[in-house]
Amino acid sequence: MRLFVIDERVTFKRCGVFGGNFEYSLNDYRGNGVNVKNTCVLSTKDNHTVEPPSAVEKYRLRLFQCSSVSAKPALSFEKQQVNVASNVLRASSKGNKAHHLPNGRFTNPWPSFTEHGLFDFLKLLPQWDRKGSKVPMESERTVKVLGRENMNWSKIKQPDTSIIQATWLGHASFLIQMEGVNIFCDPVFEQRCSPMSFMGPARFTPPACTLAELRAEIKIDVCIISHNHYDHLETTSIAALGPDVQFFVPLKNKAWFDNYKLPHVYELDWWDKHELKFADGRMLEIVCTPCQHFSGRGLHDRMSTLWAGWAVLGQKHGKHFYFGGDTGYRSVSADGSSSSTCPVFKEIGTELGPFDLSCIPIGAYSPRPFMSPVHLAPEDSVEVHKDVKSQFSVGMHWGTFVLTDEPVNEPPQRLRKAMDAAGLSHDDFVTVAIGETVTSNRVKE
Fold this sequence. Notes:
One of its GO terms (cellular component) is cytoplasm. By secondary structure, this protein is an alpha/beta fold.
């Protein structure tokens, strides 16, 4: 079966079958292909013409050879959804929805992922190295906190719009500034990452500043959320951002935001894209990217909302930013053997890279057999750095909360050793102080 594009219509040449599953491709103005899977009913005529989604005129279509044609007649034609109001192009990679389960929940569809349940966790508890995860004295900590008075406010208030600027606020929270747009990543400012204020993992390092102090200096335009775990999605911070911020969340997370009457929440599946345009001409493309993790905020909602990383692509200066969210890379067994590695990071690098600046997790990885499917050890962080074609990366997801049993000072040390083993410069993948600002041209402020 071949597809021909004539005057914004898609024409299907009959090839001996009367219907079947097919894939077609939309190519945006940069020529990047977006594959869409759909179902069509072909008539008995030689040609059958259908109208594409109304927003398709934004894209340049081209002739290509179709694949996966089924001789089993299809019963309906379902148009690929394009949300014109929010400029979201729905397009899952290669039409693959393997991460969607029939019960409405989600999964990690790769051999690199091994599921661990409550029984595995209970077996693990006697082995938990509570001494190893003990927080050292402040003078002995690897992570430093600049504090509000030492942050580079002049750079934050007047960033160079031709590059990417990142300020680490602790754990996975970043302020990203590019193309004149101020972007929050997973903002968490509370003392605990827990559903209860009196128990749960508590900070051993404070945020560099309060959310109120930051908002008094700059306007937050966009907030991207990787998933709904309490160390990445925190009620007080989200509610305080207010109705003017545009939120980007993985699939099925929007309902949580609706509780706070936030009007600009865009829900994306893996590989969905959003063209973000401001009235003053600023423009970014935001892409929801796959990662290997899980979700849940209670006892009964595990895997009921999607998890993701994010790519932000500058349209004026062409700079690309990658936020890794929370992810694993492989599953390591008790004897030290491991599964194959997660393939999506190379796909991300091929489709969206290279990235001028990336934020990649390096902590919360021990005990390794239990944590490896969902959290990167520094050695795997370096592999992700290479796979996504990151030119400069900043380590995150460490130095803030004690979530696992590795020594809190260990992640940067292992990161440097892993960079040495990979033959890479320590300057390619760095750790910074909480409150420190770095740029895509590798300048620390």
